[in-house]
Design brief:
This protein is mainly beta. The protein contains 2 helices and 60 strands. The chain is elongated.
């Protein structure tokens, strides 16, 4: 009924058109007619009248049933046949589309010796295009459709299938090999499509093949395609529509060959009587499933046998089911088996219950189980850094057809490693965030296992340490850097260092996430290379600094103060007996020079009475007992500034005197920069728990002391901001004669002062 309705619809289309479709005004609304251009083929077609063309046996075939808007084009082949199925060459063919927006171009509109005319169609918008071929006013009944889509990551391509030749059919001496796609069983006198595909030695389609193929059959009465020369548009595959018609029932061979560089291919076809069963069949033949097939569902067992026969199905050598063939000799039986490998045969059941002829066995592997993920391992782990390359390994069953790993917008096809069942690959970490990685498994039987949340992955941004500031010291390098802005996940740091930029062989791991550390036990004068990297709670590196260099050396450190400069240094040279300091207002031109006291034990010196705002240059050298220079600690500069108060390196020397009345008075030297002094009193050495008083002078008169009792005093300097020096002066013991009952005098002296009880002096 559908065929009749379709033919009627096409007849209506033809009624709307004139006999020759010569002008645009005669084309039905919504159709586009492109005029024919040139004949193609390797020989001139035989003359044939258009009236002899069979609209039923002729065909219209498309290479792509799915096309893409604005991308390339789809090829359309119109094949003309007469009522006997023979090619109709030399006829003018037109092709029209159901959509006016489509572009239809005639490449070879005159049918060649195989009855073929060639067109191509491109679409400007999405939709379905129905194609109609016209020959001298007649519409070919076959009217295929092409679905045009807007490309969005899908994969298009031809739906034609060319069966690959078996491995033992390929010979190394051939440059290319023929593959034939043709039914195993056909009826006599029935035109049938045949597709020829040319494969290169690697098994890929030889899209550049431009050679010749020819057809030979054991059926001397068969209608076969003419010798054909492949053209560039074929791209290695050509379908001859309704091109093969066998005339003699039985098993027939069809051979396709070419020149010496092309390996030929032969197939065997079962040809049945027209409208009847297969002639000459005595032994059952299983046509489906194919031997060696891997299946994932109930098996449809099909084949050929003597007409109207009772049949018996054997599985793995054991009786399984009965079935029967129809009057055409075909049989079809659904059989349900357990998963695994099985051997299936079909035998003819005689009237006496015995089994006659038995088919050759077909072996199948039934697998209805969905593959599943056993484990996923990520290296370096499930916590990764943006842009980091991560290795992934998925464990599942061996020999899967495909394993797809997807994170974000990135998909990775994993390949099976030498460890069967382990599939590996790598991906680049996407933008920061939490992801669920998806895994899709497909086995050889086509079972698909989808795991949208196979594992969770946390992607974090890389820690960036913009700048590390190295400071050279004697035998060590001090390192300081600003905390990175995204340092919440930093637990500690790893400092890598070595003697070349490419060999950071040494490593120091900090105990916490402070950003100031040093590397010691280095050689002075040797350049070292460093890199600071951050570590998270799992000990995993997450970004860091660039590689930088520094050279340890003895060094001078200056502190600018009001009218003075404090120098500090460090040195491990055991040959130094004393230090000599030279300084002046010009580099290398020193007006002052002095030998510093305390020998090699000194590590700082204060230069006073300098002019604020003037830059001074200081050079420090180590000398031996004879005054010869044995170490040069280098030159540095400093500029004293008014208002810059620094804690002096001078120590307070405390001593006691007696006034005119014989009472004790404490006195000490002034400390530059100090704004006041604190006096500490106690009854035990170094335990000043009696009183603390702050004074602005450099003398203090204790009063109210008990007779015959020893008191201990010490003094510290106070600098701007109420910062008290942590260094106390030497302790002085004071003892008076006549007793005073109460400490009235000392309490009076302390009036108005801040009193701390039982508290040691501290900054």
């Amino acid at each position: 009924m559908k065929t009749k309705m379709f033919a009627t619809a096409l007849s209506l289309v033809c009624l709307l058109c004139s006999a020759n479709f010569a002008s645009a005004s005669q084309i039905p609304a919504g159709y586009v007619l492109v005029p024919a251009e040139a004949f193609f083929g390797n020989e001139s077609p035989d003359a044939i009248l258009a009236a002899d063309v069979s609209t039923a046996k002729s065909s219209v075939r498309v290479n792509d049933e799915i096309g893409y808007v604005g991308e390339d084009y789809s090829l359309v082949t119109v094949t003309l046949r007469d009522n006997s199925g023979r090619p109709a060459g030399g006829l003018d063919v037109s092709l029209i589309s159901s959509r006016a927006t489509d572009s239809v171009e005639a490449i070879n509109p005159i049918s060649n010796s195989n009855g073929e005319a060639l067109f191509r169609i491109a679409a400007a918008e999405e939709g379905v295009s129905a194609l109609t071929a016209i020959v001298d006013g007649q519409a070919i009944l076959e009217r295929p459709r092409i679905v045009f889509l807007s490309k969005a990551g899908g994969i298009g391509g031809s739906l034609l299938r060319a069966e690959l030749p078996a491995e033992n059919d390929v010979s190394d001496v051939f440059t290319n090999q023929v593959a034939i796609s043709f039914p195993d069983t056909v009826e006599a006198d029935t035109p049938t499509d045949i597709t020829i595909t040319i494969h290169d030695p690697d098994g890929e389609v030889a899209e550049d093949f431009l050679g010749t193929v020819e057809f030979v059959s054991s059926d001397g009465l068969a209608i076969l395609p003419h010798e054909y020369v492949f053209v560039e548009l074929d791209r290695g595959t050509h379908t001859f529509a309704n091109a093969v018609t066998f005339a003699t029932p039985g098993l027939q061979t069809l051979t396709v060959s070419g020149d010496a560089s092309l390996g030929s291919q032969e197939i065997t076809v079962s040809v049945g009587e027209e409208g009847g069963g297969i002639a000459g069949i005595e032994t059952p033949v299983i046509t489906s499933p194919a031997d060696g097939a891997v299946l994932n569902e109930a098996i449809s067992l099909a084949g050929l046998a003597p007409s109207n026969s009772n049949l018996v199905v054997f599985v793995d050598g054991q009786f399984f089911q009965n079935t029967e063939s129809d009057f055409e000799g075909s049989f079809l039986k659904e059989i349900a088996l357990t998963d695994g490998r099985h051997e299936i045969t079909v035998g003819v059941l005689r009237d006496d219950g015995s089994v006659g002829a038995v088919s050759e066995a077909t072996n199948i592997n039934l697998d209805q189980s969905t593959p599943f993920v056993e484990s996923i391992v990520l290296d370096p782990g499930n916590r990764i850094v943006v842009g980091e390359t991560t290795q992934v390994a998925v464990e599942s069953e061996p020999e899967l057809k495909s394993v797809l790993f997807r994170i974000g917008d990135e998909s990775v096809d994993l390949v099976e490693s030498v460890d069967l069942g382990t599939y590996v690959g790598e991906f680049t970490a996407p933008a920061e965030g939490t992801y669920f990685a998806e895994v899709e498994l497909e086995d050889a039987a086509g079972n698909i296992g989808e795991y949208p949340e196979a594992t969770s992955i946390l992607v974090i941004s890389a820690i960036t340490i913009n700048e590390v500031k190295p400071t050279s010291r004697d035998g060590r390098i001090d390192l300081r850097w600003d905390p990175p802005t995204n340092s919440d996940s930093v637990v500690n740091y790893e400092i890598l260092y070595g003697r070349s930029e490419s060999s950071l062989d040494n490593k120091f791991t900090t105990s916490d996430n402070r950003t100031a550390w040093f590397i010691d036990e280095l050689n002075n004068g040797t350049t070292y290379f460093f890199k600071v990297v951050s570590l998270d709670a799992y000990g995993k590196q997450n970004g860091g600094s660039e590689v930088f260099s520094a050279t340890p050396a003895t060094s001078l450190v200056t502190t600018n103060c009001d009218s003075r400069v404090i120098l500090k240094w460090s040195n491990k040279n055991s040959s130094i007996a004393n230090y000599r300091l030279d300084y002046g207002v010009a580099s290398g031109d020193y007006a002052e020079s002095r030998l510093l006291p305390d020998g090699s034990s000194r590590a700082e010196w204060e230069i006073r009475d300098l002019v604020n705002g003037t830059e001074y240059f200081f050079a420090l050298r180590g000398v031996d007992d004879f005054g010869s220079v044995v170490a040069d600690l280098g030159e540095t500069s400093a500029t004293p500034q008014a208002g810059l108060f620094c804690e002096s390196s001078d120590s307070i020397q405390l001593f006691q005197r007696q006034d005119a009345d014989g009472d004790p008075v404490l006195m000490w030297n002034a400390i530059p920069g100090a704004t006041s002094y604190r006096v500490y009193a106690g009854t035990q050495p170094n335990t000043y728990d009696l009183a603390t008083v702050e004074v602005t002078s450099t003398a203090f008169r204790p009063g109210g002391l008990l007779a015959n009792t020893g008191y201990y005093f010490a003094v510290s300097a106070v600098f701007p901001g109420s910062h008290s020096s942590a260094n106390l002066s030497n302790a002085v013991r004071v003892e008076v004669g006549p007793a005073e009952i109460l400490l009235i005098a000392i309490l009076t002296a302390l009036a108005g002062s801040y009193l701390w009880r039982r508290k040691l002096a501290r900054g």
